[in-house]
Amino acid sequence: MRATTAGVVGAALLASTAFGLAPLAQAAPAPTVVTAATAQAAAASSTFRFVDIPGSGGITLKGNVFTPGGYDGSQRYPVVVLPSSWAINDLEYIAQAKQLADSGYVVVSYTSRGFWLSGGQIETAGPPDVADVSKVIDWTLANTPADPAHIGMAGVSYGAGIGLLGAAHDPRIKAVVALSGWADLIDSIYQGRTPHLQAAALLGGAGYLTGRPSPELQKILGNFLTANLAAEDEMIAWGKLRSPVTYLDQLNANGTAVMLANAWGDSLFPPNQYAKFYEKLTGPKRLEFRPGDHATAEATGLLGLPNDTWASSKRWLDHYLKGVDNGIDHEQPVQLKSRSTGAYESYDSWSAVPSRTTTLKLGAKGLRTGELGGDAGSGWRTTIGTNVDSGADGGIIFLSSLLDQFAQAPPVASIPLLPRAFATVWQSAAYGTAQHVRGTSTLHTTLTPSAADGTVIAYLYDVDSLGIGKLVTHAPYTWVGRTPGKAFTTDIDLLSTAYDVPAGHRLALVVDTVDPLYIEQNPLFSTVTVSSPASDPSWLSVPLHDQ
Fold it and tell me: Is pLDDT of 23 > 90?
């Protein structure tokens, strides 16, 4: 396996976001209306204190509590519990916690176990973390004026994952807001069986600097570091244990009101896995996607600044914990913010986002570029070398998606100048009208590797008249243990997105083998052949929304 130590460590630590146990299910009672107590609390400033909370297994969790102002010892208030993000402590949510408390909530934030001054070791959202959620709720009911019938959770990243898992395992939780989290840990950290190098290095370093990895986590890291592919099944089982989707039936049985929000360019937990999870939820639910990278869409709200994500989160909690008739339950539940226009779009479901899907056949690659769409033909094959970065790539973690978020400037590549010896390219004709890409594009093709292990990365570009391509979406794909020289067919789902290709521009599909974002598996001097057999032609499906 080709990987740096920091990269592999982080890849496993990305898995630091979800564990679970078997839960009990019970129906959630309807939320109460706003009481005089909560109205009175909204008129007075909340109070704040640091606390020690007994966690599972006898450890101590460091936390803080905001209590609504005007409390006279007789009122009960709805509760919001906020687990901290990876490598951050309980002060993370101070601004949002105060705003919630000032509007009539008891708010408890705590530092997740294994980090900073909280006890225990990093269990990567494992069973002890899930048990901690219930312990924190127990403590809150015993030590604050909390209403046991109206308990909610919210969190960012690691806190989002713990919140979803906690809601699946503790039926007392009636509403959850999961921002920039994960539903399927394997589909996030091992997307296309390809570890994310830059994210790995970032999270790995942060975890070791601020926390204490458990023996189980160290074992997983060791398997990554030694390229122990024999332990892959163990790693996948470990990830499933930490994936909310594993406990979907329990979450649905609990009737929990679930709000999910993420960024189109999330480098850690891509939007696809959230969308799939959302479609399987049967209770009250909401899905929001915005431009940006991991946790950047909600970041300004953590500073107390106006923020759409947090505003929507508060409306969700107000309705499902306080019973406020704010209309959020009557809105179209899928809310998307376009990367191109910055405008919001509303849909009844994720499956309703595209109006139609166009299938573009991949044509024979000549000396330079193959045809994308039209009478592309089949029966062709083209071979590229590996281990050379062609110049097509997904950018730099955080920086590239932030530029896209604030300046609509995604990573770019000169499509005519990409070296065809190391990248194969297909390009469409110029479009007469704008093409509104909405949802998940899929590449269906046949690969013939010269080595048992290898990696390819597929990119979709918006190309202008000068041949400059702006990255629309991409995805990695890795194979392990294939027979060299034997063809196999695969489908590669690219990252979901909302992007407008202007009239007069073209779409270009690029396939190469190296991207600085990922840990690739290509041996030196290996090759990979892309082909389109007549019996099973290669194609790219692109979801479009007619506006």
Answer: no
